[in-house]
Each structure stands twice: as structure tokens, then as C-alpha cells.
Amino acid sequence: MAYLKWDQLTLVDHPLVVHKLTIMRDQKTGPKEFRELLRELTLLLAYEATYNLKINTTVIETPIGKTEGGLINDKDVVIAPILRAGLGMFDGVLTLLPNASVGYIGLYRDHTTHMPVEYYAKMPELKDKDIFLLDPMLATGNSAIKGIEMLLKYGAQQDRIYFLSLLAAPEGIDTLLSKFPEIKVYTASVDEKLNDNDYIVPGLGDAGDRLYRTK
Q: What is the pTM (predicted TM-score) of this model?
């Protein structure tokens, strides 16, 4: 299968990311450690994803003298987790950007069609904001697309949306970027493929179930 040129994809493969992701994949890793690792990995992904945020020049006084520095206005940032698994990533981004606004996107997967179904949306002002859309798994790409469509409906700009995921399947990346070529995607791993049930292989199972011990 031929894939698009993924210019908008950033693979964050720092040794710490590889180490923590390996532990998360292990089926013996329990919910407490899984949640902690997801938060830590999100911090590392968000560190990379915030690289292009605007820096406002300012002059400050150090104990020795004046100097020019730069500040990010994190009030111009919105964090939007896709419920429910995206909630496990939310705190990691908010730690770095504590004044960010938060929007919530509620989607569930129809087990027959495998398509996302919207059940909830609560958004702050999105116009002229940098938006971090969070979902641990980019599998088919359909949930990401649905989430982006909801953000755009509420006034977001495509080129200011950053999609953060732990794992991505090639099929999902291709589907997402063919629909929204200006979206910036950050992931810790591009896995092999999707299986017949549209789960990522080798993946780590269902992130929501592993976070909250559900089936």
C-alpha cells in the first residue's frame, strides 16, 4: 500500500519515549502505572509539539541587569482531549501550559461500523487559538477527523491544530492527512498496520480500557 508523503508528521522517538512506551505496551502493566506513563509520555510529546508556539519578546530585570527574553501566552492555547482516553493525556499538556483553556470532545466507537459517534462537545473560544487535540491512538483516523471537524465547526483554524497520539497506524495517518493536510501530527510510534477489527498492530490494546480497567 502506498502512503502519502507525511510532511506534517513528527515522530518523537527519544530514548525516554521508547523506554516508557515499551512498558506501556506490556500487557502486565497495570492501570496505575499505565496512567502515570501516559502522562509522562504526553509531556514529552507536548514538549515537541509546542516548539512552534509564538514567543512574545519582553525585557526583564535579572539580579545582575536587564535582558531580553520571550514569553508564551498560554491563554491563547486550547487543550481538547477526545473522551475518554484523551483525558489520560490532558494533565500532561496542562502541566506545561497551565493557563490554557480546555474543550471536551465526546466520541464513542460504533462496534458495528467502527465509525465515531459524537455524544458531547463543550468548547471555549477557538478562533485564533493554538489547539492541542489529544487521543492516545490514531488507528483508522476517523475519530481524529471527527474531532477536527468539530473543532473547525466551533471556529478553529486547521493550520493551528496539533494532534498528539501515542501510537499511529499508517492507514490512519494517511486518512487524516489526506483529509486535513495542514494538521500537525505528533506521535511516539508509527506501528505496523491495522488488524481486521481496526486495532493497531502491535499496539497496546484499548487505551481507554487499560486506563480505567474496563472492557
A: 0.92
